[in-house]
Amino acid sequence: MELNVVELSRLQFALTAMYHFLFVPLTLGLSILVAIMETVYVMTNRPIWRQMTKFWGLLFGINFALGVATGITMEFQFGMNWSYYSHYVGDIFGAPLALEGMMAFFLEATFVGLFFFGWDKLSKLAHLAVAWLVAIGSNFSALWILIANGWMQNPVGAEFNPETMRMEMTNFFDVIFNTVAQAKFVHTVSAGYVTASVFMLGVSAWYLLKGRHIELARRSIAVASAFGLASALSVVVLGDESGYSASHTQKMKLAAIEAMWDTHPAPAPFTAIGFPNREARETHYAVEIPWVMGLIGTRSLTEEIPGINQLVEEAEVNIRSGLIAYDALMTIRTERDETPADIRAKFEAHSDNLGFALLLKRYVDDPRDATEQQIAQAADDTVPGVAPVFWAFRIMVGLGFTFIAVMLYFFYRASFRGMQFPRWALRGAVAIIPAPWIAAELGWFVSEYGRQPWTVDGVLPTALSASHLSVMDLLITLAGFTAFYSVLFVIEMALMLKYIRKGPFEDVEETDAWTIRHEHRLRTHDGKDPFASDAAEPGSAPLSNARHPGATPAE
């Protein structure tokens, strides 16, 4: 990698973004699973479900806290490292980020406190409402972030204003209901649900292997496998929707994912495996499955999917059209209100391709001075790294189908085999705990690396988006972020492992005793101290006989 400001800025953002996304999917999934468990507790009044809610809720809380801290850093980077990007498209990109802060972050941040500290103060239904508000807030947060990211992939509802030299929003609802953004949202949250399900399954399997917390582990496996199976299936279905969307909005990315160098007669095959060679413009030892890519990408048997070579030719045409728009724009900047009508008309006719002309600024200060060779090179730059995207996508898909198989097996054993699980299966469940994170990170790699060389697809090249910083500035901040995030990662892992080893703070009998005391306080409003002894509470069970050796009361 060339050591320059743009590449270092990309590396730093990739580091912080991929680190932040270690926490996001688990937060999304655990928030829903915890709310489901508390719902079962309220409906059945069985203490084991309250115990499960508090235990998995604690792990959610640890993950949530570190996820918030790392997410804030990302948003500041738009001003620090990508200031021209923020200036150029901030009117559009800033709106969903602001809504994410107002509607989602404050919602989940407010109610997460009530969730952890409101057990003694709220009724069952009130606390259940809090649990669901935390889950909704977490998912709303993902919605607005992915609307912002989806706009970068498919910039609708906005246009370039030659007077301000910036992109400006023209239709807020087009931005919100962007097909790419909606497909990314449902696909991403489903992947988060799978991540949490695999995590819960693996931790519960570890408990069964150790012979600890058997009832909690078995019920957690039942919940995780059912929820995880539905989520894993939805990831596949929604991934298909993303592929169909890309065939209309990001044709080059789709061609790179498939290493499809030339347009194939419809319906196009799916390359299951192969070795892309960019220099030779071919894929060696390709194993193809007929028709599949055509059905996924176009949902028809007659529509073609353009290949990379054809798309490069189209990019060159767009660059030449963009040069006409750029030349007219320079005249508008000079003449202002006195610009001839034919010049403005010329700009309007070609303005959609202005971003392609800006690709030439990587080679020449004034795109109008570009040579034919530079135009051809800029067109070739629209091809992302084919081999990395090709393999990342296939590993991600392979892991996705693995999750379906694992969840289906455990769902079958939990539902029809009396929750009896072979030890080899439990060991396998523990071993695959990291796999969903690998799949999620690869998915983001495909999405973002496959969009290059654009920060905003077809609008703003990455090479123009970075701030005017020095290489040394970026090396210092990159080293600082790496060190700080490494410390946070160690803290996260230490806390999670500590509380997983410790297990639930209460046993089931102790939880049952707490429930009796709490319901009495709410019913009589006697104002007793929540830590009053059992003897002072009518109908309560003595805790001294309920605790197992080593149990630590939380109440």
What coarse outline follows from CA principal-axis ratios? Answer: globular
- The figure for the number of domains is 3
Question: Percent of residues in beta strands?
Answer: 5-15%
Gyration radius, in Å: 27 Å
N-to-C series of helices and strands: HHHHHEEHHHHEEHHHHHHHHEEHH
Secondary structure: number of strands: 6
Q: How widely separated are the two ends? A: 56 Å
Main-sheet strand order equals 1-2
Family: Belongs to the cytochrome ubiquinol oxidase subunit 1 family.
GO molecular function: electron transfer activity; heme binding; metal ion binding; oxidoreductase activity, acting on diphenols and related substances as donors, oxygen as acceptor
InterPro entries: Cyt-d_ubiquinol_oxidase_su_1
Keywords: Cell inner membrane, Cell membrane, Electron transport, Heme, Iron, Membrane, Metal-binding, Transmembrane, Transmembrane helix, Transport
Structural notes for this entry:
The chain has helices at 5-20, 24-44, 47-80, 83-117, 124-153, 172-176, 179-210, 214-249, 251-258, 292-298, 308-335, 341-350, 354-358, 372-380, 386-416, 423-431, 435-449, 471-502, 508-524, and strands at 158-161, 166-169, 270-277, 282-289, 454-456, 460-461. It is mainly alpha-helical and 555 residues long. The chain folds into 3 domains: 5-248 and 386-502; 264-298, no CATH class; 308-381, no CATH class. It has a two-stranded antiparallel ribbon. A two-stranded antiparallel sheet has the order 3-4. Helix 3 (47-80) packs across helix 19 (508-524), helix 11 packs across helix 14 (372-380) and helix 15 packs antiparallel against helix 17 (435-449). Mean pLDDT is 88; it is low at 527-555. Belongs to the cytochrome ubiquinol oxidase subunit 1 family.
